[in-house]
Design goal:
- The protein has helices at 4-20, 27-34, 38-50, 66-88, 97-104, 110-120, 166-174, 209-212; strands spanning 54-57, 61-64, 145-146, 156-161, 182-189, 194-199, 205-208, 215-218.
- Helix 4 (66-88) crosses helix 5 (97-104) and helix 4 crosses helix 6.
- The N and C termini lie far apart (41 Å).
- It has 8 helices and 8 strands, in the order H-H-H-E-E-H-H-H-E-E-H-E-E-E-H-E.
- Strands 3-8-4-5-6-7 form a 6-stranded antiparallel sheet. The chain has a two-stranded antiparallel sheet with strand order 1-2.
- The protein is of the alpha+beta class and 219 residues long.
- The relative contact order is 0.10.
- Among the domains are: 4-64, Arc Repressor Mutant, subunit A (Orthogonal Bundle); 145-218, Ferrous iron transport protein A (FeoA) (SH3 type barrels), CATH 2.30.30.
- In the presence of manganese, represses expression of mntH and mntS. Up-regulates expression of mntP.
- This is Transcriptional regulator MntR.
- Residues 1-65 form the HTH dtxR-type domain.
- Keywords: Activator, Cytoplasm, DNA-binding, Iron, Manganese, Repressor, Transcription, Transcription regulation.
- InterPro entries: DtxR_MntR_Metal-Reg, Fe-transptr_FeoA-like, Fe_dep_repressor, Fe_dep_repressor_sf, FeoA_core_dom, HTH_DTXR, Iron_dep_repressor, Transcriptional_repressor_C.
Length: 219
């Protein structure tokens, strides 16, 4: 069983890879995401490279190997199933389950996780709309569009809120910007870097581009 630190690094590298695409994850970016010094991150990455879990290019960056990807997806599967369990069964608020899952993801056994998955009906996504990796293989690809780029005047369904910050999640919840909600982009103001949306049953809400980019939709 990998250590907690190893699991956290592998999971974070996977998440960063989703942002950078085919590029290597820069070491500075990884260190910032892990909240450690670049030297600490480099030492850990070298150990992971020796274990064949990461490909490391000095002055270039890192990328998970197939085995590193497999382990990272296992951690993400545990994390996101736990989040869904905490919201759906224990009725915790979706803004507070991330930190709880961060602790539990390293302790729960595969047997208990399988029972949780069965109890929940084998969900594809967690409360934030993040994909739950299957027991084997990779998550199903989805084509999502942020509110920044979504067409105006066309009904859309929010599929994912790509931010775990509690304050942002509480804001999204207050304004009806949660997964499954129907919304329409009603206007854009390039001068103000703002997008205005109308959730069904709610008043219009104006978002800055940084916030709008975190809310992903599908037709």
């Amino acid at each position: 069983m990998p250590s907690v630190t190893v699991e956290n690094y592998l999971k974070q590298v996977y998440l960063e890879q989703q942002q950078v695409g085919d590029d290597l994850v820069p070491m500075g970016r990884l260190a910032a995401a892990m909240d450690v010094t670049p030297g600490t991150a480099t030492s850990m990455v070298k150990a992971l490279a020796d274990a064949k879990l990461i490909d490391y290019a000095p002055r270039g960056g890192v990328r998970l190997t197939p085995e590193g990807t497999r382990l990272a997806l296992q951690v993400l599967r545990r994390h996101r199933l736990i989040e869904q369990f905490l919201v759906e069964v224990l009725k915790l608020d979706w803004s507070e389950v991330h930190d709880e899952a961060e602790e539990l993801e390293h302790a729960i056994s595969d047997k208990v996780l399988a029972k949780i998955d069965e109890l929940l009906g084998h969900p594809d996504t967690d409360p934030h709309g993040d994909p739950i990796p299957p027991a084997t293989g990779t998550p199903r690809a989805r084509t999502l569009t942020s509110l920044v780029d979504a067409d105006e005047g066309r009904p859309l369904t929010i599929a994912r809120v790509a931010d775990q910050d509690a304050a942002f999640l509480q804001f999204a919840d207050r304004h009806g910007l949660t997964p499954g909600a129907s919304v329409t982009v009603t206007g854009r103001d390039p001068a103000a870097d703002a997008v205005t949306v109308r959730p069904v049953g709610k008043r219009n809400v104006t978002l800055g581009l940084a916030a709008a980019a975190k809310i992903l939709t599908e037709d």
